Amino acid sequence: MKTKLNELLEFPCSFTYKVMGLAQPELVEKVVEVIQRHAPGDYSPTIKPSSKGNYHSVSITINATHIEQVETLYEELGKIDIVRMVL
């Protein structure tokens, strides 16, 4: 059974993105920069290094106002050159 994301969410709502990318100092900066363009606010991302330290996971929660915003952010975050996956 396929369910669309907008059927599961009631807007506005808190929505967390988990962005996995190369363990470079600018990863968090680039993620926050993209988030700020589409959902301006004061953010405190959580960073977790991978077991070997090659990658970092950045978790960031926004106050989503509509499904288009959520989808656009998935797309834009995925376009960051050092990002490998967005969940």
Q: What percentage of residues falls in helices of 4 or more residues?
A: 25-40%
Q: Indicate the structural class.
A: alpha+beta
Question: Could you tell me the mean pLDDT?
Answer: 93
Strand content: 25-35%
Please work out how many helical segments DSSP would assign: 3
Within CATH, the superfamily carries the name ACT domain
Number of domains: 1
> What distance separates the N and C termini?
20 Å
CA radius of gyration? 13 Å
Architecture in CATH? 2-Layer Sandwich
Description:
Helix content is 33%, strand content 32%. The chain is an alpha+beta fold and 87 residues long. It has one domain (15-86): ACT domain (Alpha-Beta Plaits, 2-Layer Sandwich), CATH 3.30.70.260. It has helices at residues 5-8, 26-38, 67-78, and strands spanning 13-22, 46-49, 55-64, 83-86. Helix 2 packs antiparallel against helix 3 (67-78). The chain has a 4-stranded antiparallel beta sheet with strand order 2-3-1-4, with helices on one face. The model has no long low-confidence stretch (mean pLDDT 93).
Short note summarizing the structure:
With 87 residues, this protein is an alpha+beta fold.
Q: Which structural traits does this protein have?
A:
Alpha-Beta Plaits; 4 strands; 4-stranded antiparallel beta sheet; 3 helices; elongated; 87 residues; alpha+beta
